[in-house]
Amino acid sequence: MATPLVRQAAEIHNRSRGDQPIIAEYLELYQQNEVDQILLPEQTQCLAVKTFLHMCNVKFHLKMRSNAEQMSPSKGLPFIKMGPQIISEFEPIVEHLSLKGVSLSGELSGSQRALLKAYMSLTVNRLHLAELYITWCDKLTVEEITKIRYGSPYSWPLTRILPWLKQQEVGRYLEAQGWNNKTIDQVYTEVDMCCKALSDKLEDQYYFFLDRPTELDALVFAHLYNLLTTELTSAKLADIVKKYDNLMRFCERIRQRYFLEGEDGEDG
Amino acid sequence: MGTVYAKEPVINEDAMSNTTDSEDPTEGPGTSPESRIQHIFHGDIKVKVERVHIEGLGRTKEDVILKHVSQLFKAETFKDVIFTSGVVKQELEELDMFQGVGVLIDTSKGPKARQDGLDVTVIVKESRRITGNAHTSVGNNEGSLVLGAKCPNLLGRGEHLTAEYSRGTRHSVGYNATFTTPLQGDIGKRFTATVFRTSGDFLSSSYKEIDHGTLLEVMLPSFLGQHSFKWEGNWRDISCLSRTASFAVREMAGHSLKSSIKHVFTRDTRNERIYPTKGYLLQISQELAGNRLGGDVQFLKGEAEIQLNRKLLKDCVVSCSLQAGLMKPLNYTETLINDRFFIGGPTSVRGFNFRGLGPHADGDAVGGEAYWAAGLHLFTPLPFMPGRGGLGDLIRTHVFVNAGNLCNLNLAEEQTVHQHLERLRDNFRWSYGAGIILRLGRIARFELNYVIPKTALHSDSINAGLQFGVGVSFL
Lengths: 268, 475
What we know:
The complex is a heterodimer of chains A (about 270) and B (about 475).
Chain A: H1 4-16, E1 27-31, H2 40-55, E2 60-64, H3 68-71, E3 79-82, E4 85-88, H4 90-99, H5 110-136, H6 139-151, H7 158-177, H8 184-202, H9 215-229, H10 236-242, H11 245-259
Parallel strand pairs in A: 1-2
Antiparallel strand pairs in A: 1-3, 3-4
Helix pairs in contact in A: 2-9, 5-7, 5-8, 5-9, 6-7, 8-10, 9-10
Chain B: E1 4-6, H1 13-19, E2 48-55, H2 62-69, H3 78-94, E3 98-107, E4 117-126, E5 131-139, E6 142-151, E7 160-168, E8 173-183, E9 186-202, E10 207-221, E11 226-240, H4 247-250, E12 254-268, E13 279-289, E14 299-311, E15 317-329, E16 360-361, E17 364-365, E18 370-381, H5 391-394, E19 395-407, H6 417-425, E20 429-440, E21 444-455, E22 465-471
């Protein structure tokens, strides 16, 4: 449909950025071992990126490495490898792909985009911190699940030392965010408030913005799905999410659309 | 040999003139006009050490000293006594427990003293309980500043406890605490236990390594050479230095635990380490990591080094050295980059950058599992400077040829030894050049060479032309 002139102009525009105009044949997504190592916060981020890539119709290969966290340039997971380039963490990945011309929110207006960013901060801040808290600060979860899983690829005494060091690091991060003094009930309340805000925004729509998914949908789906399905020491988190019907339907909808036929559909 | 004091009473001139070449050492008391006993000493006179006194012992336990001084009782002639005193003094000083050792030889006193009896007094001055020091040390291509504190002779039998903090020019920071003790009172046998933390940047491979570990070592001498048995438990943390590190190195980032035992046999007959002019060095080592010992990494590694030095006419020395190493990962694992071999550099195969010879991935040296390196040098004194005394003694010129190869042999595959050797011979690199070396005491050696690498692979990192190196051991 585009005239040859417009097509040529688009090619010149893409080439002048110095990048290739199309995504490479495949990209590789690196994460920790799904079955016995990965923890709730990382799993959420990985699922968010996978959902986003499915939504953009970008093919990728999933690679699991026990040292994925140390391999990542920012020490955050997941990271993707496109040829020689490596980009880590959800938001930089979304931004990098949009530079390559792959974006879900390209058609949003300015104010909608600002709203999108605001809600992304909401979910990133509240839900992510809640997941970090529950994984690393709730004593029962830490002793029974987290330390064992985090130390599983190593031999003694690293199985003890490394989870302890990571716990100190996460504790410092939560302290900087003002979260380490909260009790577990306060954290559950935070999660509840966050879900309520999301539920109010979603109402009866299919997706958060317009009638097609954006990166916010990917991120919210990842958080909610993992809160519902990850095995923790208590089912409190799943119960909180279950209170909101439209969020439940939203999760089911996205799961059915993107993960039932996909080759990387299974998440634990 | 130090100072040996020997006291003798006044003797008159008659007796003196008779002693110089007398066959009969003792004149006997009867012949002398003096009524008291005269003691006439020269080398072959038969004496017997009756008593040995030891003065100055504080916290040092007696049995340590007794082991060494007891040999004095075996001396038969006066020459023996003096010689043995010198040996005892040297042995006690080697224990590193004393600030100074002195030996005093006197005639026996007292009513039961024999005519030819001697009393020997060993005077020791113990070191302070704790000493501090700051010094620089030179490693290969790196210098560092070391601050340390030492408790010598901690429990009285020659044990030492040392703690050190060091900072190197390659951003390496390290500290360690070491406890060492001689075994069975024998200075040749030592047991050492160390707890350490070291770190270092390896720019040529774009990674940084931080090690925490413990080391237990036993050193035993034997009539063939020195044996050293070591167990090491080491937690290594590798991280990439920059975003542009190659993916092959990035894949190795992370934590690993090495638990290994190592045996090193050394036979060193060279006259000195920095610039040997005669003698040879033979060193063979084997290391086994993992398996039943625990840890993540599992491999078997062997290395050997041989160096021969020979003096030619006048002041010229020809030196030839050969190093080789082979490692095999066990139980279907793969070797990690920080366990592999690396060669190349001003102290290894010259003409290449540090770690520049061997397999590379995207510009990062990744090391190999088998290597050999050889060097042939001819050292001559400076042509225009006199060889004796002053600066001329410290500087030498040398002409050399270096060669080497570093590769992976894939020992798992079915190949004959002949095929493996061919693999090592294929694509080997060599270089030649000349330069001057400057000896820094017996501690280190500076080299400034002009090198021409004659063959190199595309992926090697070469340094043609001037190359400067400082180190302790060179190829």
